[in-house]
Amino acid sequence: MLHSTSRTTHSESTGRTAKQACLPLFVITLLALGLTAIALTPPVESKSTLAHRSDFDSPARQENHRTSSHERAAWGRGIALTSRGNLEPAAAFAPPLVTIVVDTTADVPLVSACTAAPSDCSLRGAMQFANTNPGTTISIPAGTYQLVVPGGAVEGFNGDNTIGDLDVTGNNTSIIGAGANTTVIQQTQPNDRVIEVNPFLDAGFNFTISGVTITGGSETTAVGGGGLISGSIDNAVSVTNCIISGNSATGSGSLGGGAIAHTGGSLTISGTTFSNNSTTSSGGAVTYSAGDPFARTPSTGTLSISGSTFTTNSSASPAAGGGALDLFNYNSGIGTYNINSSSFSGNNATVGSGGAINVESGPLTITTSSFAANQAAASGGAIVAADNTSVTFSRLVGNTVTLPVNGLALFRSGGTFTADDNWWGSNSGPGANDFRSTTGSISPATYLQLRISASPDTICTGASSTLTADIKKRNVGSPLTTELNGLPAFPVPPATIFNNAVLGTLSGASTQFVNGVATATYTAGGTGGMGSADATADNQTVTASITIQATSTTDPADQAVCPGTTATFSTTASGPGPFSYAWTLDGSPFNGDSPSIMVPTGSLSVGPHTVAVTTTGACGSASQSATLTVQPPTTTSDPADATVCQGATANFSTTAGGTGPF
Q1: What is the model's pTM?
Q2: What residues have CB less than 8 Å from 380, skipping those under 6 apart?
Q3: How would you class 438 by CB atoms within 10 Å of its CB: exposed for 0-12, middle for 13-18, buried for 19 or more?
Q4: Of 141, 177, 342, 614, which has the fewest CB atoms closer than 10 Å, so is most exposed?
Q5: What contacts 544, CB < 8 A, 6 or more positions away?
């Protein structure tokens, strides 16, 4: 597919001058003459006729030839040429709907019967079938489908599906795999991409693909789209739940898009992972423009990305960049870009700007997305924007640029750029170099902060409290509620969020913030006091304090008393009340509910007795005991009678018993 790569944008206007986007004069004339020929019914252009387009080797000649051939073939596809010179689907065109199932991994284009018979439907053969039966759904079971027929420069831009990449010429074709982890479409040839959608640049062309891996594509002819190329005026392409990995687009003046290059109409990407794609141009993963390659107008479109992941993609354009995405309007296209719930990490604009995203022209809106560890050589470690851009409810952490003053995370080179209510990895918000513009540092009005709470924050020993950490607090104003729903989970394990439990233990702790929230359970030990636990998000740590309460009671004093007297015992309780008291004497309940008791000893035997108390409060029970000693009574022995002579000394003695001193 030939796509012009000349752009009328700020950053690319000086870097890409090859391949002009205007239609040659004779092509415009041909379009005008075509208006008078609509009433005619020329024969449908055959597949063999289309194959002759490979004879045009010069890119300029190819573009001119494809324009005229495209128009001639339009009648046969139910396409009408409008008064504005655009090609649009005829109102009466209604393609049949057919589902076929690929049943062999062999790369043989002639195996295209695609009936219920075994081994009669290869992937390339299924594409042959779909190209002659618009509206076909191709179901691809689990397996690795290697493309082994070389095409390269020989194939050119003729839409020949029998060699090189898979050429999708049948409108409303759908490819459905069994899941990206099990269904793999792999290009094995060194100079071929994987899939070429709408090579004839028909207007109103639709294509969907889901549940497959696209890998190994290598576009080397300076066109773009290493994994997949698509687009034209009023086209709609949808990529869902796919993995697009290890593709490249190289060559001077390439449109870029190591994984996908789309020009003209809308591109919708959801639930898809882009990794390790690269380009010598811009847009390591995706390059997108709503502008039509033939400059037909108005050419509008929307790039919609949701729930997708972009990691370790790279671009090497010194004029633009975009390690993951390069977004621009050209040929008077009018495009808008919307990204939500997506993650960009480790992408690199090795010599250009926008480690993750380069916005050359057109408005970009980003919500609930994560940008971490992206890097750029020139400006905007995560994003550089020359047109109106908004980033909200997102995470911006650890992005870098060669010169920090050129925006470690964000750089505004034109238009407006707002970045309120984002998490910058610290409760102090963005640093002076995190968000820059051509006129200096930009400070967002609001930013998000990490907080932690314990519920309840006062517990008894052995009880539990729920810890909740989130990044929903604003530096000013009310906190967020549900705005972070859809934010990609972070951090990547084995990093921990909750730690440093004091006077307790942690269990059930979240390993990632999900929708900006993480939880854990804190269980107090057996010691009362001030407990705590920490939560960490990126570069910020906060602490929750938890008061741990316990029931305690003092030890009644031991006593020793004489028989018949009364002993008094008392205890003092502490902790959350109200309190109840249970006393026992020698193990038997005694004297009711009171913090003190009186024990008569008249009926007690001499010797030690145990008096115990159990105090019960809101935080459990505590027990203490004392010893009551009933002393024996005082006794003395009878002195012996004595008879002595007058004047002699009589000696008398007694022996005392009981408790002295005597």
Answers
A1: 0.82
A2: 353, 354, 355, 358, 401, 406, 407, 409, 410, 411
A3: exposed
A4: 141
A5: 452, 453, 454, 457, 467, 522, 532, 533, 534, 535
